[in-house]
Backbone:
């Protein structure tokens, strides 16, 4: 599944990084500790988090994640969006909580 | 003339919910004096309100105090902030008050947040929980601390939670730190290797004492002329022969 398809199916907001919407999704990872994501996330995963700092994009880029998905209507900081455009890694958003969006993601990706 | 001063710059008082009730201003000063410490930093979670009483008692006893707080940023990174005078300290308190979310809590479970006077009489009980992230990012907090002429030092950077590396993976570019806090039990060379910190990044070892017996368990030595805010700044920046090293 591509990031663009996920955006449509789960009605996600695209904050930035539109040039990365054709990236392929292989799985998902949920964490708010950036050190944990650095160590344990895998290439192609959707990263669900409530962290909005620009380091999020740097780590998503380092780990070659598919995209970042912010929960609970949180919005990325301005320089996070700028960085996301440069790195072509989409930063998405949802009004749903981590629990709810993770459940929906699991169904979409694992099925 | 350059002299050596022992400093423990990360100490909590009764005001921090997680600190022991024995951490009264008078007791902190007594223990610090007994352990031959010259300078203590008062750094309660998201509050500066206990600083002035500690400073008053300490100065009477011949102990210097660096007034500050351990602020929790939006990313839940604990950062030490120190201020030159009570005016800028108060301004930073207003900044915290403005950005602290109002989260009622149960003091019976989490501990009381008491402001006490010099005779250990409770003069205020803070109702909103202080061990939470304020709504400002680490970059915004750093800029505000420096706007007020303060010092900004991320606390216990090696902790698996609430440290700059656990929360943010790496030090954000353009973040202006005056030092990096490390824990009592850590070894400087291990920390420098693990986080690839160059020699010119001053490490500040401190106790993070929440109980009396921990005071002075981690100290940093400041080589400088006298204990003033400006001399502390110079020592951290290695200006004019001043410097710091870990005890």
Residues:
């Amino acid at each position: 599944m591509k990031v663009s398809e996920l955006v449509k199916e789960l009605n996600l907001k695209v904050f930035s990084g539109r040039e990365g919407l054709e990236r392929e999704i292989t799985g998902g990872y949920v964490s708010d500790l950036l050190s944990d994501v650095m160590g344990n996330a895998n290439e192609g995963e959707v990263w669900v988090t409530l962290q909005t700092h620009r380091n999020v994009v740097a780590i998503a880029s380092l780990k070659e994640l598919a995209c970042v998905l912010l929960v609970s209507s949180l919005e990325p900081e301005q320089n996070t969006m700028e960085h996301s455009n440069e790195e072509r890694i989409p930063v998405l958003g949802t009004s749903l909580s981590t629990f709810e969006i993770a459940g929906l993601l699991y169904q979409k990706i694992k099925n | 003339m350059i002299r050596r001063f022992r400093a423990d710059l990360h100490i909590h008082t009764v005001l921090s919910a997680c600190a022991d009730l024995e951490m009264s201003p008078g007791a902190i000063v007594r223990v610090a004096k007994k352990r031959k410490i010259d300078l203590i930093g008062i750094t309660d979670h998201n509050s500066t309100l206990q600083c002035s009483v500690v400073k008053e008692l300490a100065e009477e006893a011949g102990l210097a105090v660096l007034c500050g707080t351990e602020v929790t940023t939006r990313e839940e990174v604990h950062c030490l902030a120190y201020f030159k005078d009570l005016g800028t300290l108060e301004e930073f308190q207003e900044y915290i008050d403005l950005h602290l979310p109002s989260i009622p809590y149960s003091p019976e479970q989490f501990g009381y947040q008491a402001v006490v006077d010099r005779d250990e009489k409770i003069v205020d009980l803070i109702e909103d929980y202080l061990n939470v992230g304020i709504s400002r990012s680490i970059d915004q907090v750093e800029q505000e601390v420096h706007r007020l002429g303060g010092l900004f030092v991320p606390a216990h950077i090696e902790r698996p939670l609430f440290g700059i590396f656990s929360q943010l993976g790496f030090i954000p570019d353009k973040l202006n730190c005056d030092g990096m806090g490390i824990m009592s039990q850590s070894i400087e060379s291990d920390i420098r290797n693990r986080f690839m910190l160059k020699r010119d990044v001053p490490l500040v070892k401190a106790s993070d004492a929440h109980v009396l017996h921990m005071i002075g368990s981690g100290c940093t030595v400041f080589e400088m002329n006298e204990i003033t805010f400006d001399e502390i700044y110079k020592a951290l920046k290695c200006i004019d022969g001043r410097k710091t090293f870990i005890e």
